[in-house]
Design a protein that fits this description.
Blueprint lengths: L2 E5 L3 H12 L3 E5 L8 H13 L5 E4 L2 H7 L2 E4 L18 E4 L5 H4 L3 H4 L5 H8 L4 E4 L6 H4 L13 E6 L2 H14 L2 E6 L20 H10 L3
Parallel strand pairs: 1-2, 1-4, 2-3, 4-5, 5-6, 7-8
Antiparallel strand pairs: 6-7
Helix pairs in contact: 1-2
Length: 220
């Protein structure tokens, strides 16, 4: 059974943990305060997964333990905390990056303000031996478990990915489909700014054609 390490237990991390457990994955989730602070969340997510008849599980761990246990991982921490994400335990693994830049929370980052970098590019630079893919950054957490639909559904919601690694992009697309979303591949991490904060495709409900149009309308 596949184990997914989730580093970050906020709204996005919690929603993804619940959705993955429902779909039969074993989830190891971590936050910055320690696994003992996640007892209530783990109990709730485990009960939800069990109630849905899923065979997956959820347990809490440290960030290092979650990274080590992972077959693949999700990093969903505030951008200001990216430097705290363990590097070596994620080496050689695919990492889904949900990060967004909120200067009000993260402080000013010159490379982003000056359009010389992207948030996922910073994640890939921090995790040089991992294969990072941008995913789930432009959907509200509350929509992750409520707006998906089966493949082929007319007007199915679409989400974007961006990666420099084909296998990482393929995995993210597979996860999107499992959650009920079509995939639009932006291409390289260098183009991932097109789906960042304040761009037309950011946190709006759109099908694949609309998403492509919004990505093309993006300006930097």
């Amino acid at each position: 059974m596949t184990t997914v390490g989730i580093i970050g237990a906020g709204h996005i991390g919690s929603a993804l943990a619940e959705g993955l457990a429902r779909r039969g994955y074993d989830v190891v989730i971590a936050n910055s305060r320690g696994p003992e602070t996640l007892d209530d969340l783990v109990d709730r997510l485990s009960a939800d997964a069990g109630g849905s008849g899923a065979s997956g599980s959820v347990r809490a761990a440290t960030a290092v333990d979650a990274a080590q246990a992972a077959d693949w991982a999700i990093v969903t921490v505030p951008l200001k905390d990216l430097a705290d994400v363990p590097v070596e335990p994620l080496a050689g693994k695919i990492v889904l990056d949900t990060n967004n830049y909120y200067w009000e929370r993260d402080g000013r980052i010159a490379a982003l303000d000056e359009k010389r970098a992207t948030t996922t590019g910073l994640a890939q630079a921090h995790l040089p031996s991992s294969r990072v893919v941008k995913a789930f950054n432009h959907i509200p957490a509350a929509d992750i478990l409520t707006t998906g639909s089966p493949a082929g559904t007319p007007d199915r919601r679409a989400l974007a990915i961006a990666s420099d690694h084909a296998d990482a992009a393929a995995l993210a697309a597979e996860v999107y489909d499992a959650f009920g979303f079509d995939t639009v591949d932006i291409g390289s991490v260098g183009e991932s700014w097109r789906v960042e904060r304040d761009q037309p495709a950011y946190v709006v409900r759109q099908n694949a054609d609309e998403l492509r149009e919004n990505l093309a309308r993006a300006t930097r």
